[in-house]
Amino acid sequence: xxxxxxxxxxxxxxxxxxxxxxxxxxxxxxxxxxxxxxxxxxxxxxxxxxxxxxxxxxxxxxxxxxxxxxxxxxxxxxxxxxxxxxxxxxxxxxxxxxxxxxxxxxxxxxxxxxxxxxxxxxxxxxxxxxxxxxxxxxxxxxxxxxxxxxxxxxxxxxxxxxxxxxxxxxxxxxxxxxxxxxxxxxxxxxxxxxxxxxxxxxxxxxxxxxxxxxxxxxxxxxxxxxxxxxxxxxxxxxxxxxxxxxxxxxxxxxxxxxxxxxxxxxxxxxxxxxxxxxxxxxxxxxxxxxxx
Length: 292
Fold this sequence. Notes:
Elements: E1 2-5, E2 12-13, E3 25-26, E4 30-31, E5 56-59, H1 62-72, E6 75-76, E7 79-81, H2 92-95, H3 97-108, E8 112-116, H4 125-131, E9 136-141, H5 147-153, H6 160-172, E10 176-181, H7 192-201, E11 206-209, E12 212-214, H8 217-230, H9 234-242, E13 247-249, H10 253-267, E14 279-280
Parallel strand pairs: 1-5, 3-7, 7-8, 8-9, 9-10, 10-11
Antiparallel strand pairs: 2-3, 4-5, 6-14, 12-13
Helix pairs in contact: 1-3, 3-4, 7-10
């Protein structure tokens, strides 16, 4: 079910330095996600998203809030989106909330970092190019290189081959583009050689890895249920190996990490993404931004 809601605020200040993406602000335009990845941490109780597996809530007043908040910000810093849901899930094709948010970000001259699993991002290529005059990065999450396996793990998302094609198109147009190779799921997929090779062949500038996954409360229960349905017998291996632990490392994480580093070095791929350095901005008395 898709429902509209009214948000009270939109932009949140990221606490402390963000060593992954260099974010200064963060926002989510939706609550819930249509991609329904079986491992998604956003199901966890701590995020207080009820009916995550059924409802998607659209922040109907998001663009109004965004424009008002951007006008008042004294620091120009990277705005991130995609942490709690995918900004390019299928309904975005019609609702275009992400597109209108990018239009506002471009108008106010802010940098942006988008995390997605969808090649729908290509629809906004010209906007992303405009924002990249300040700073723009688009990162595609890739958990496996095999499309058939991907449909088991991420049933509502475009398959990985489409994501790699989108990386190629964006990079060819001068957009800083890379991969979040996470999570690498224990006992299911650790063929990082192919992921790194495909990232390189399609122009990815960087890959950020996480060799394992989180497992907590509602997330764990949902994931184990899907393992029973799609990977019979695997749940018992998880329960024996990880019990109630919060983090479940992939098999041989040290070996995978060393292999990953060697592969990226051989292909000239960064393992830390270039980021935008925040800067101060003067505001006019009417709170409208000055032109740079």
